[in-house]
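Teaching soon. Got one?

===
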Amino acid sequence: MQSRLTSALFALVLTSVAGTAVQAQTAPAARKAAMPTIEDTYRDIQATLGLVPGFFRAYPEQGLPGAWLDFKGVQVAENTRIDPKMKQLIGLAVSAQVPCGYCVYFHTQVAKAYGATPEEIKEAVALAAISRHWSTVLNGMAIDMASFKGEVDASLRIAAERAAKK
């Protein structure tokens, strides 16, 4: 589970970075022309979620169509490379560290709706805490990045060799 969660989180970060790079390269006029109207956006939110939550109505109207497309395309979509339960566990782990009580509630409830067990929820939050802990140690002690990468790569090679011997 931890390996899958780590892999999924890495994939989510890469997808987010790649998506941001693509959006930045899109010409503003083309992006604006391709964006749905605010009325169409509200209708789509209503059709997708059954209501338009207040936080969408509070968002600046000029940015909501794009924000909704991102939310719907990654957060709500079930046909992405990361299964819905895993997405919510990742969201919970990140939200616990941000911290965002709204997001923790949202991701916990949706993860449960997708079948996450109490143990999976605890593990996701614990993984976030462990990541924060070691991030503090590594950054605070200014561990050399090249050495760190070399040690991680060596450890993974050793693990693969051991697995091959089994």
Remarks:
- Residues 5-22 have pLDDT under 50 and may be disordered.
- The chain has nine helices and no strands.
